[in-house]
Amino acid sequence: MPFAQLKDRALISVSGPDAEHFLQNILTTDLDILAPGEAKPGALLTPQGKILFDFLISRTGENAFRLECRADISDDFIRRLTLYKLRAKVEIAESDQAFVTVAWGHESTPSQSDSTAAADTRFPKGAVTHSYGETAERSDLAAWHAFRIAGGIAESGSDYQLGDAFPHDVLLDETGGVGFKKGCYVGQEVVSRMQHRGTARRRVLIASADRPLPVPGTELTVAGRPVGKLGSTAGTAGLAIARIDRVKAALDAGQPIMAGDVPVTLAIPGWAKFAFPQEAVSAEEA
After folding, report:
1. For 229-262, what is each residue's pLDDT tens digit?
2. Residues 232, 188, 67, CA angle at the centre, nearest 5°?
3. CB 3.0 to 4.6 Å from 128: which of 5, 120, 137, 261, for a disulfide?
4. Which residues contact 129 (CB under 8 A, 6 or more apart)?
5. Closest residue by Cα to residue 207 from 195, 197, 216
């Protein structure tokens, strides 16, 4: 089975008698349904509902959690968590065992008693496992990113910038990264409003082309008008975050969608539940 060591990841431990209550009150993830052996996506939002930090969270014991995040944001993430701590009986620290190895393309689920590994719930059950505190014998980072792109899984830094996206934009509402039945958390009012009103228009789409896609960040246009931006790429495949109403208008009108000078096809990830709007915006509105 293929492996990749993710050297750009850091691990933050949050533990103590109040750890679960503390995290449940500030993060988007619903910890009531986080089972041992699972790593669920989530975010800490601004009060306006934008993603400030993204992560995978898993249990390491009773009232003990592991947050896997980008290494370059870990210090800021710890400071922000500490800011919310107040009088909660919680210890927050970066873990010394920062090795993260991801394995995919197999069907195995970590034991619930094994705190050194967790199944990535963004993917089909058992398809992806994150192991902590060990290194892979061989590492194929390019293959991992190609697998992630094919699965329609966006990550900050590669596909969007922190502070610039709502959870719905990057499909956290579809991958279990937002608990819509839990109580309040930071930014919850905005996210709930988008969910109940169905106002999410920017979405992650899978891009494909007949030749290699241009660099991440390239603007997607229709007749010179912007509809989104390209994210991670792997040859002729990539991810994009785009306005699905404007994409629908282009599809209905038979207009090509361009990434630079490369025509692209944009498709909804096969597992996603959202759809292109039935009534697209007009060219003038786009």
Report:
1. 999 999 999 999 999 999 999 999 999 999 999 9
2. 55
3. 120
4. 102, 103, 104, 106, 108, 109, 110, 117, 118, 119, 120
5. 216
